[in-house]
Every structure is written in structure tokens, then in C-alpha cells.
Amino acid sequence: RMETDRNPMELPNNTGFEEDSDYRDFEGTDVKDMRLEAEAVVNDVLFAVSNMFVSKTLPCAEDVAYINVETRERNRYCLELTEAGLRVVAYDFDQTDDRLQTPYHETVYSLLDSLSPAYREVFGNALLQRLEALKKESQS
């Protein structure tokens, strides 16, 4: 687990939260950090795009992070990652355009699938190779 410069929220032991299933996983956990989430998104699909990295110039916070992506078609996008999902906020790295009203996608796969036919092909081929490997494994 990566270290953060914030302390996890500590709850006193007598809150009674332990019995309430809604709060069972809450104690000792930190608010989801979108920068860590964004890094995970990048690591997940980097193989299927030309370039992808978390923005170093746009501000990351607990509730928002920005990801720059260049598709294999050489189109550049800046993506916003929030609890609502991912969406395109500009057609270049490290930019946001408030006039852009693009839909949110629940997953990076869905977003890239809509932006990049080459991504779709590379990702699909990787999936097929993985399935073939699993099939061979199960037969041996």
C-alpha cells in the first residue's frame, strides 16, 4: 500500500459503528484518493494506447484527477476522473474546456472504446490471447 501524507480517519472505539454493516469497512480507511485511482487506470490500459499518464500540471484532489491520453490514432485527450466516472474535458494534454459537455463513462474501457478503434482492436486481441492461454492451461 502506498503511503500518503494524510492520516487515515480514526474513529473512537465506542461509536457503535462496528455493528452497523454500512460502516463496517469504514474504520481506518481513507477517503478514496483519485490520484491513486488514476494511476491504476493508466496502468490498466497503457499497453493499448500510444501514451497515457496522470497530469502533473492539473490539480489532483481526493475527488478528482486528470489523465492525459494519446490514442494509437495520435489523438490527444485530457480525461477527468471523478466518482461519477471518466469523461473527456479537452482535446489536448493538461487542458480543461468548461464548454465541453461530454458524457461520463463508468470505465476507462468504455471511454477508450468510444474514442479509439485501434484501442478496441489491441484490447480485443490481448483478451483473445489471454483466453487462448487459459484454454491451453486448462487442457494441460
Could you walk me through the main structural features you see in this protein, from its secondary elements to its overall organization?
The protein is an alpha+beta fold. It has one domain (34-138): copper amine oxidase-like fold. The protein contains three helices and four strands; from the N terminus they run αββββαα. The protein has a four-stranded antiparallel β-sheet with strand order 1-2-3-4, with helices on one face. The longest helix is centred in the last third of the chain and has 23 residues, at 117-139. The radius of gyration is 19 Å and the shape is elongated. The two termini are 36 Å apart. Mean pLDDT is 83; it is low at 1-31. Residues 34-134 form the GSKIP domain.
E-strand count: 4
What would CATH call the class?
Alpha Beta
Q: Note poorly predicted spans.
A: 1-31
N-to-C CA distance: 36 Å
Write the CATH architecture name. 2-Layer Sandwich
In helices, the fraction of residues equals 25-40%
Record the strand order, biggest sheet. 1-2-3-4
CATH topology: copper amine oxidase-like fold
The CATH superfamily bears the name: Hypothetical protein (hspc210)
Sketch the topology as an H/E string, one letter per element: HEEEEHH
Secondary structure class reads alpha+beta
Largest sheet: 4 strands, antiparallel
Compute the number of helices: 3
Overall structural domain count: 1
The fraction of residues assigned to DSSP E strands is 15-25%
- What is the CA-based Rg, rounded? 19 Å
- Whole-number mean pLDDT: 83
Shape type: elongated
GO molecular function: kinase regulator activity; protein kinase A binding
Pfam family, one: GSKIP_dom
GO cellular component, one term: cytoplasm
Organism: Edolisoma coerulescens
